[in-house]
């Protein structure tokens, strides 16, 4: 199936937390969006594999995305291997997205940073028809754009998506991952740096920070490595 946008994320819930608003906005405007998770998040100490699978299904229903895949590369063990990058490139050739959005190539979590690099390599290889079929004679179109979303480390974004109109829906979406965000006990409440109840508060702080930078209530920052063509010099629109 042809997709407009393919999001590549390391663990189930990364796509929703980091670019859930962008995904909701795209789908609500009629675009076809798919997600590829590289792992099942099985190293997390919260929630069973069944819990995680149910949560992903609930999140898919909220987003109304067109496809979701899991490459099951092993949580905490994601590596840029020939096999992994070819599997991801094959998905890009299958879905022919115009845009790929993946983790930034620098992040505290090695799976996130590796995901960004794996997506970058697969994005390039997606345009090499003979890699998939040595006898291919027709060129394959590489996705037009590769954007990176923000994880633990900040960067200077190329642009910020105004997600104000879908903010409440994004919060509902991330709440689908109850095993990851609900406090498990009193000591848990708001104490976790990377997990726990304060993930929603931190998500809001970040969204408000980036929204403020573009004069809106909430925003999600995206990075494109290198300059983008400007088709409208008056407004600077892409
Ligand atoms: Zn993650």
Structure description:
- About 40% of the residues are buried.
- The chain has about 240 residues and is α/β, with parallel strands linked by helices.
- It has helices at about 15-30, 50-65, 80-95, 110-125, 130, 165-175, 180, 200-215, and strands at about 5-10, 35, 65-70, 100-105, 145-150, 160, 220-225.
- It is globular, with a radius of gyration of 18 Å.
- A seven-stranded mixed beta sheet has the order 3-2-1-4-5-7-6, sandwiched between helices.
- The protein has a single domain (about 5-225), classed as 3-Layer(aba) Sandwich (Rossmann fold).
- It is built from eight helices and seven strands.
- Helix 1 (about 15-30) crosses helix 6, helix 2 packs antiparallel against helix 6 and helix 3 crosses helix 4 (about 110-125).
- Bound molecules: zinc ion.
- Zinc ion binds near residues 11 and 109.
Topology summary:
Elements: E1 5-9, H1 14-28, E2 33-37, H2 49-63, E3 67-70, H3 82-95, E4 99-103, H4 110-125, H5 129-132, E5 145-149, E6 159-162, H6 167-175, H7 178-181, H8 198-213, E7 219-223
Helix pairs in contact: 1-6, 2-6, 3-4
The structure holds zinc ion.
Zinc ion binds at residues 10-11, 14, 109, 112.
